[in-house]
Structures are given as structure tokens and as C-alpha cells.
Amino acid sequence: MEFSSFLTSLGTSFLIFIVLMLLFAWLSGKPGNSVIYYPNRILKGLDPKEGGSRTRNPFAWIHEAMSSTEQDVISASGYDTAVYFVFLSTVLGILVLSGLVLLPVLLPVAATDVGVKIAKTTSNGTFSNLDKLSMGNVKEKSSRLWAFLLATYWVSFVTYFLLWKAYKHVSGLRADALMSPEVRAEQFAILVRDIPPVPEGQTRKEQVDSYFKRIYPESFYRSMLVTNNKVVNKLWEELEGYKKKLARAEAVYALSKKTGKPEGARPTNRIGFLGLIGKKVDSIEYYNEKINEVTPKLESEQKDTLREKQLDAALVFFSSRVAAASAAQSLHAQMVDKWTVTDAPEFRQMIWTNLKIKFFQRQVRQYVIYIVVALTIVFFMIPIAFISAFTTLENLKKYLPFLKPIVDIDAIKTVLEAYLPQLALIIFLALLPKLLYSLSKAEGIPSEGHVVRAASGKYFYFIVLNVFIGVTVGGTLFSTFKDIKKDPDSIPDLLAAGLPVNATFFITFVALRFFVGYGLELSRIIPLIIFHLKRKYLCKTEAEVKEAWHPGDLRYGTRFPGDMLIVTIVLCYSVIAPIIIPFGVVYFGLGWLILRNQALKVYVPAYESYGRMWPHMHKRILAALIIYQLTMFGYFGAKQFIYVPLLLPAIILSLIFGYVCSKKFYRFFRDTALEVACRDLKEIPNMEQVFRSYITPSLSSDKIEDDQFEDALSQVSRSTSFV
Amino acid sequence: MEFSSFLTSLGTSFLIFIVLMLLFAWLSGKPGNSVIYYPNRILKGLDPKEGGSRTRNPFAWIHEAMSSTEQDVISASGYDTAVYFVFLSTVLGILVLSGLVLLPVLLPVAATDVGVKIAKTTSNGTFSNLDKLSMGNVKEKSSRLWAFLLATYWVSFVTYFLLWKAYKHVSGLRADALMSPEVRAEQFAILVRDIPPVPEGQTRKEQVDSYFKRIYPESFYRSMLVTNNKVVNKLWEELEGYKKKLARAEAVYALSKKTGKPEGARPTNRIGFLGLIGKKVDSIEYYNEKINEVTPKLESEQKDTLREKQLDAALVFFSSRVAAASAAQSLHAQMVDKWTVTDAPEFRQMIWTNLKIKFFQRQVRQYVIYIVVALTIVFFMIPIAFISAFTTLENLKKYLPFLKPIVDIDAIKTVLEAYLPQLALIIFLALLPKLLYSLSKAEGIPSEGHVVRAASGKYFYFIVLNVFIGVTVGGTLFSTFKDIKKDPDSIPDLLAAGLPVNATFFITFVALRFFVGYGLELSRIIPLIIFHLKRKYLCKTEAEVKEAWHPGDLRYGTRFPGDMLIVTIVLCYSVIAPIIIPFGVVYFGLGWLILRNQALKVYVPAYESYGRMWPHMHKRILAALIIYQLTMFGYFGAKQFIYVPLLLPAIILSLIFGYVCSKKFYRFFRDTALEVACRDLKEIPNMEQVFRSYITPSLSSDKIEDDQFEDALSQVSRSTSFV
């Protein structure tokens, strides 16, 4: 890639960023848009414009984000978001500390070497200034390579140090969250699966109750059997749908009274396919009728579900946090595949449909899905390698000669050259997360957060293996394919030549990600447009409007693998082409700043896992470090540096570091430590309320009396047991 | 090996066996020997000669052993011994079921083939009748190999079926043991290690008590700090030594009154080095003096130890079994390397000196020892291969020509040929267990039984890898070393030729083991001789005599790897040379019978782990099966059988079977299931007694009042807490 196209790419990205920033400053000031730019605050009942925003200073948000504390983030967006910021600032710290040493030391060392002629690059072969600053400019076997070797160690030690500190900090955050004096329902419950068949002469409820009462005579409170809610959920959704439509019809009617004739125009609809064909009816009457028709059906189905459709899973409630935490960790049955316990997920995280999957089926599903994902990763590598090789202009012209006239126009050429490969990548990557999410869900995991973490892990391997390794190796190999055929032994030499050249590609990739990606993130142009369109043409009731602007989650599950790709790229090139470090710093610095604003004012967390994502983050940063060390090992080898075995201790050290961390910290992220769970609560927990918070809306009804629940939900064991 | 030398070997072994059996029948009838042949019954206070022995029928013991139930074994020798019999009968079952199909099917198939000329055997190259019955006699690529392939699967399925049944059975035994209504102290305690430094202004005792009282306000009973007992133990042993010597001196004096002059001869001793030099003193006076001198020292050291020498480990006692079982499985501290808990070993299993080793030091020690053992295994393989190759007579004559005249004498030649290689092996193997035991102990394991299991596992790998693979591969390679140098590609062919030939070696090895080994075991010639010598020349007091005949443990830890060697050998050759199966059946049948007698009448278990050895046994039988499948895979390959990939599913099936078993059953062998621990006891446990049973003898003294223990042992939390 030529230097000029590199600058063009940077320049364009920066321009887009500036435009988006200006848009944000302008749009966020308008009162009608505050539901888009301050939804978190509005939902919390706070004044959206509190603080600097009132002064209309367009940069006030920067000051607010910078001066916010971790506690502010926790109270606005929860612990998981705070942990995501620990990730951002840890990576930022690693890059800053690395850059502070690597840039002033390595750039002069590389630039002042006499330089070696590098094998043909993917562009015209002109040797740009950028490439002069990279390790590619250092001669083979040169003693200058010592500086790069030491730099590799420096980056490793910085990473160990900051990761250790971060793990300790996050462990503390998690402890704070779990020992909080607030009553949180999930801390009083455990999830029991694989309950054996009901013995003769007992109901499922009696079986579960007697089992747990016997083991926990004092702390057992009550159990709730999990039922198959498919039918009842469908009925309930139907009913809710009619209720919404009724509200909507009433709103339309009220509006027509105000705007049109004083008696109003009663809204009508057709009852056929999609409301397009069939008889025309009065909507309000029709929906009222429907509601009256469905309600008794739902009620009888509710009773039926509770009595007949019990599954072999249950939630068991305890009267103290310690009892629940301890029960969730203990083996209950002699056979491990019976009465399996885990701590209960939050109600909003429960994946009820997965609860009926049996122990060994879960194991089988897990392995099958691992294999499927591994195959997907391996077989996507091939197209990716082709994409990255094809989408350089050189290759386009070569293989698709009819494009030549268009591509040769200077302006188009520069822009295409700058963006084509990166765009191809970004579009490809956007298609994946959904697939991985459904695959992870199919493993039989009972909690939403866990599924997100599992999917995120798969996405990480996908991105890193395919994009990073695919582009580096594929791009290099492809562009020099003929040379290899002539002389296969030259592969290491080609890689040695290819690695620094790819650096420019990745720098523009990073820059595109932060300027355009974060610009769009902050300005929220797309949600804004969608919201205004919806409000104008679709929303009739208050509830519908509220739904239209609901900001959703930060979605760190998909954000994080993207960030990890940047971490991997920047780490791997940090020593080879240290000039990439500032770009990485800007990516994470800007990311931290903009997401801080979004976390404080925009996004609303969908669930809370108290930092369970951190061990994944930690492991993956470490994996990136090891990939980096391996890359350096290979690259030093290709540079014929005879002291390259001195890098092996670094790799072993990384493995030991990972082992020690997981030994020391990990189990607390899986199980609740009892010393944490035994802290006092601020009030005696209202167990009835804790219990009721786990009743699915489709099963909860004012008309259903408690004694009708009896079949699925056990009675209070002793009314005074929870003191 | 020639057929005649094979028969000689068998004949000699059988002769020795008959002689030992006759000796047993004669000696066990003599009343003076009953402490050697019935010590278990005597120690239990039962009549040693009850049942058939009274009739002087020398084969009554066989009837008694056959008719004894598992419950008899459990009450005589405990659960661990019963589990060892499950192992023996499972292996016996596998071999019998395999033999019933393999012998009638495979022998004719092999014997009726035209036969191939096999490469030079280790003997004169005469092709014996035995070799004709093996798979070596089947031609390459022959369709007869199908029978052998199916036989391989039959053996595998028999193994899966019996192993599954056995695991289920042992799991039930363990559950029975753990839910027994007897009060067993270790079920009420947990072992806590890695207690963090004492906070300012607290004692260690207060720290531990407040920590556990807070988490278990209702079930915590009391804690006992572990102290460094080195000095106090030394003093206590010194005192006990003097007490014994005093008793001995008094016995000698009493005897002299009876036999010599009526006033008696007061015994004297010298106080210098080993009682050989120095001043002569009156023994009774001298030892009394010494006891009076050491006793106060011991008492003050006891107080000192309890107050000053507390380590960062403790035993914590709970008032119920469920509470203790649950506590032992739960994470207590936020950092996993602090307050680590495990269930408490029995008092007699405690390895107090290991308790002070820190969390990460234990990890490091473990890995270091794994590496040491792995290196030992690898580097012992070389000498073993040489031993087995050298100690064939052929080679002895070749490399040590001066032995030729002796070796050529016919009688000596036959005996030597029969025993030389086996003896070399057996002697070598006898040296190992001690080393592996100390290595395992150095890992920092807190319980004796666990150390024995760990050592046993190492011993298994040692034996199987070195003996089996070493002899097979080494022996074959060595004897044909020159051929290989000529043509390295012929290695598979050589192995194919060598495997069946080695079968004869292993058959004689197995026969030697069961005839001589079990003959010695039953007749107890060596303990008998030692006992009579000791009683005659050394023992003066009743206690000394009792010590002299104390039978000790069954030592399944070292017995089991030896058995596993036989299992591995017989399994591996079961299809190649099915004639080995009857020898395996006799080994395990005879073993079962003779050890049943020993378990019922002789050995006294040193500790009880409630069948924790079983998962190891299970895993190792499965490992032997996989080694067998791999051997068959290689051997079929060497026979150029093109359907050999059909064996791969068997190997995968074994891995899946192992995975499923360990998932379903294993955790219950590590942790106590709460549904088992919650069974009712036959009486309210006397917690004071439970607590006192863990006080080391060197620290327990009538003179030390309970309040002096206060520093290390916490007070009863609430006197009524254990109802």
C-alpha cells in the first residue's frame, strides 16, 4: 500500500469522525432527542441534562466522562459494564506503557539501519517511509535485533503486571457486589436439574421438598418446579398482543376525537391474513371480544401447566445467602448426573427452555457444537484468505480486468485502495455473532449471560484465527504464490518480508474502526433516525414510543471480540512496527471515553453477572500475548537471529502466569465464596417476594390463588424459618 | 524359548506351590502359630480356630473363603479391602468371559492355518507347539484375521460391561459406608489450610473461630489449630522409649526371680553409645530416673507448642455430617489460595508435617515430582530393555563367554533359562515402591491413603511402560538389532514376528507370580520365621510379642500395580496368543481365594478410605484396555490387514466410556454427596469425643487441663449446639 493511500485513508476516516462529532454536538442539544442521548438517565428518573450539558458546551460530555468514577458507572450501568471498562483501561495501560518505551527506542534503531530490500509488497513495491520505521528495515542477524528482543520482554512484563492488578481489582468488585446488603433474589436460590423420576406414590413437588428438607432442615424455604410453558406462553403473548392493539386502537380513537370530528372515527381493521383481507370490524370491540375469549383459556391453561407439565428441574429457595451459596457448590446425589445443582441465574437471564435438557445430553451438545465451531473456523479461513488477497486493487485489476477503467480513475482508486479490504472484512464479521449465539444457546446453558460469554469466546477465536492469521499468512502467501511454487523453502523469508508490509493494512483497519466506528457510536445517528421514523409513522401509544427509544444493552459480548482483534493486531505488531502503538492507544482511549459517555447516559444493562466476563477477558488478553510471542519467535527466526531461543522463557512464563491466575482467582468467578455470602443484609429478606420474583409473567395472575400453585410450588416450610 | 524349558518352568513353579501349600496346612494347625495365621481374628477378640480349621481339614480354609460374603470382608478388613476384591473379581470376570469365547474360537482358527515362518526367536529358533496356537501362525492379509478383529471387540465390550457394573457397585459400597449410623470422627471435621496471617490484635484461635462462626453460626462446633510438633514428638518418643525399656527391665528382673535366685538379678545396662560403652547402671533405677527427668520437660514443651507453635492450618469440627460435608466442598475465601478446605482425613491417616506447605508450593511440588517420575520412567526403560535382552541365555553366552561351561550343563541351563529373565525383573520391581511413596508424600498431600493412591498410580505407569513395553519392544529389537541396521523399514515386520514370541516369556512370568507369589503369601513362611526368631531372642514383654506378630496391612497400594501388570499383559496377548488367558484366570482366581483367606484372618487395615482407590483402579483397567487396543491396532497393521481402521472406533469408544464413567461416578469419590451424609445417626454424636480423637498422643496428657488447650483449641461454641 502506498504512503499516499495510507494518508488518504486516515484523512477520510478523520473527516467522517469530525462530521459525526459535530452532528452529535448539534443533535444531542435538541430536547426532542434526549430520549436517544440520555435514555439511561431518563429511565432512572434523573434529569437528562444535569451537569455540563445544560451549558450547551459541546465538549462538556468529555469532561463528564473523564471525571466519572467507577462507582458512577456501576450505579448507572452495573458491574458488568464496569468490568468492561477495566478491560479497556487495562489494555490502554498496556499499550501506553509499551509505547512509552518502544517508540523512542525502537524507531531510531530501525530507521538508522541501512535497510534491506524487501520482497515485492502488495502495492507498487515502492518502499515507503512507514516501512522504514519497522523491524523489516533491520538487517538479518543484526545485533540491533537485541533491542527488539528486549522490547518483546518489556511488553510481556507490562502485560503480566497490569493483568494481575486488574484481576485482583475485578475480584474485589465482584466481592463487593456479592456482599452487598441489598436483597437479590438470585442469591437465595439454586437451580436443580436432572431430578430423577418421581417415586411411586409421591408428587414431584413432594419429592423435591422432602429431598431438600431432609438435607437442609433449617435453611430450606420453598421450591418452585419448572414447567413446560410453551402453550401458556403462546396464549399469554396472544393476550398481551390483543391488549396492546386495544390500547393502540383506543389511542387512535382518542386522537381522532381531538383532530377530526368531535365524535371521533372508530378505528377498524380486517381480521384476515396480516390484516389485509377479510371482514372489516370495529377494532376496539373486536379486541375486547378477543381478550374476553382468551383470558379464561389462559387461566385454565395456567392451572393445567402448573399441575401437569412439570419438568425435571426446579428452583430451590433458601432462607440465607450462605446456605444457597454453599448448596450450589455441593454434590447432592451419589450419581453426579442426578440432582445437579448450580446457582440460580437472575430471573431475567433464565433460559427456561434449556432446563429440560439432560445431563449427558448437555455434554454431547457441548462437544458437538465445539466441533461445529472448530470446523466453521477452519473452513472460513480459506475464503477469508482469498478475500484479503483478492481485494487488493492490484489483484482486482489482474483477475477482474473489466474493472480496470473504473479503478484507474485516481480518486476512486485511492479511496478503494484504502477501504476495499477493510470493508470486506467488516461486513463479513458483522454476520457472525448471531450464529454463534444460537449455537451456544443450543449447548443447553441455563443462563443468558453464560450463553453470551460462550458465544463471545467462540467469536474471539473466530476473529483472531481467521482475520489476523488469515490476512497475515494468506495475504502474504497469496501475493507471492508463484515464488513459493518455485522454491518452497523460502516461506519463512516471505513471511519475514510480508509481516511488516501487512502492518500498514492493519493500521488503516484500526483507524477505520475507531474513527468511523466510535463516531457512529457516539452520534447514535442510526438509532436516532429509526426512532424518529417510528415515532412519526408507527407509534400511537406512550408504551410504543418508549419501546421505540429503549436503548438496549452495551452488548459487550460482541464488542469485546472486536476489541480483542485490535489488541491482538497491535500487540503482534507492537515490536515489528511500533508505529502501530499510537493507533491502538487512540482506539482504546477514544473507546474508553465514548463508551463511558454511553454507559453513563445511554445504555441500560439487560442483566447482571457480577463480572463473570472477566476471566474470559483475562484469558483472551493472555492468548493474544502468547500469539504475539509466537509471532515474534517466528519472526526473529526468519530474521536468522541466533538468540531467538531466548524468547521461549517468555512463552513459558505466560503459560505459568495464566495457570497461577486461574488457580488463584478463577474459582471465585464460578462459585460464590462463603466469606462473601455471609455478610449481613440490610433487612430481613422478604422470602415471599424473593420467591414470587421467579414466577414467569405468563403464569402469574391475580386470580390464581396461592393454593393452586401448590402442585408446582411448595408451601412455606415454616413461617418463621427466615430470621 | 523352547517348549521343554517352558514346561520345566511351569513344573518347578507348581512344585514350589505344592510344597508351600503343604507347609501351610501343617504349620497353620499348630496352636503356637495362630498369631501368624489368625492375627486379625485374635485382635478382634474372636476365636481363631472357629469353623473348619478345628477339624484339621487342611482345605477347610478354601471352603471358608469361598463361602464368605462381601459383608464378612468389610467387617473383617474394611471397605478398601472389599473394593480390592471387586477389582479382583471384575478382572477375573473379564478374563473368564473373554476366554469362554476366545479359546474355542481363536485357537482352531490359528492352529489350522498353514503357518508362516517366524523370524528368529530368542531361543534356538525351533517353532514350538505353543507358537502355533497364536495369531503369529496366521498368514498376512488372511481373511482369518476377521475372527481376531471381532475377538478384540468382544474383549472390549466385556470390559466395558463389567467395569460399569463394578463402578456402580463400588459407588453403592461407598454410599453405604458414608451413610452408616456409626459416629466417625472424620465425617464431622474439615481440614483448613492456607489460613492468612493473623490480623493485628487477634490470636490465631480467635481468627479461625470468628471466621467459621460467622459463616456457620449454627453448625460450627470448635476448631483445633495444627501445631508444629517436632520437638514435643521427640520428647514424647524419648519418654515412651524409656517406659518400654523400664517395662522390659522389670520383666527381665521378674523372670530372673523365677528362674534364678529368689531375690533375682537386677538388670543393668551401660549408658554410653548404643549401650555398649560407658558406666554400668541399674536399669530399673536408671529408666525411672530418666522418666522423671523427661516428663516435666515434655509437659512444659506441650504447653509451649500449643501456645507458640501454631501453624496456618486447622481442623474445624461441625455438629452435623451434612454441615461438614458441605463445608468441605465450598469455596470459603475470595482468593482460592486462602482458607482452602478439604474433608479431614482420618486421624490415623493425617500427615501433620505436610500441613504447613502452602497452596502454590503444593502445586509446584506436584509438577516437579511429575517431571521427576516421568524422567525416571523414561530413563529406566533403557536398562530394563538391556536386562531383558541380556538375560536370555543366548545373550549371556554371547556376551559373557566365560559363563559358557556352567550354562551348558543341562539341568542348570533349563532352570536358568526358565527363571533368569523373570527373576531379574521381579527383583528390580521390588526396589521401587518405597521411592515412589516418598516422592508422593513430598507433594504435600495431607493424608496417608491419598499418598498411597498417588504412589500406586505412579508405580502402575512405571511397571506397565517399563516392563511391558520395555520387554516387548526392547527384547524384540535387541535380539534382531543387526537386522534393523540393515533395513530400518522392517521394524513393523520384526514387531509382528516378535510379539507372539514374547507371549511365552510372559506366560512363564505370570505362572511364576501366582505359584510362588501366592504360595508365599498363603504360607506366610517369612513372617513366621521372623516372629519365632524375635520371640525367642528379643521379646521380653507382652507388648513386644504383640508387636512382633502384628500382621500389618494388605498393602493394596503396591499389590495393585503388580496385578495391573498381569492385567495388561494378559489383555494385550488375549487375542494374539489366547492360551495366556487361562494363566490369567488362575492368577486372579488363586489370588482372590488366597487373599480372601488373608483378608478374613490375617491382615488388619491401617486406615479406611471408603473405596477411594476404585476410580484409580477403574482408570487403570481402562488404560490397560486402551494399550491392548493400540497393540492390536499396530499388530493388525503389521499383519497388513486392510480393515485395521475398523479398530479405531473401539479406541474412541474406550475414551468415551472413560469420560462418561468419570462424569457420572467420579465426583462422589472425591466429595461426599449430601443425600448420603444427611442420613440419621444411631445416637447423638459426642462432640467432645470426636474432637479429642484428633489430639496427637504427644500433646494429650491427663495433667493438661482443657483451659490450657485454649490457645490452640477453641472452646465449645454452644454447649447445646449439637442436638
Automatic annotation (TrEMBL), chains A, B:
CSC1/OSCA1-like 7TM region domain ranges (all copies): 365-636
Record's keyword terms, sorted: Calcium, Ion channel, Ion transport, Membrane, Transmembrane, Transmembrane helix, Transport
Any one GO CC term of the record: plasma membrane
Residues of the CSC1/OSCA1-like cytosolic domain: 187-354
Localization in the cell: Membrane
Domain of life assignment: Eukaryota
Presence of the UniProt keyword Calcium in the record: yes
Membrane-spanning ranges: 6-27, 82-107, 145-164, 367-390, 459-481, 501-520, 565-595, 641-661
Membrane-protein topology: Multi-pass membrane protein
InterPro entries the UniProt entry points to: Csc1-like (IPR045122), CSC1/OSCA1-like_7TM (IPR003864), CSC1/OSCA1-like_cyt (IPR027815), CSC1/OSCA1-like_N (IPR032880)
A GO term, aspect molecular function: calcium-activated cation channel activity
Domain CSC1/OSCA1-like N-terminal transmembrane: 5-165
Residues in coiled coil: none
Family listed: Belongs to the CSC1 (TC 1.A.17) family.
Name listed for the protein in its UniProt record: CSC1-like protein ERD4
Organism in which the protein naturally occurs: Quercus rubra (Northern red oak)
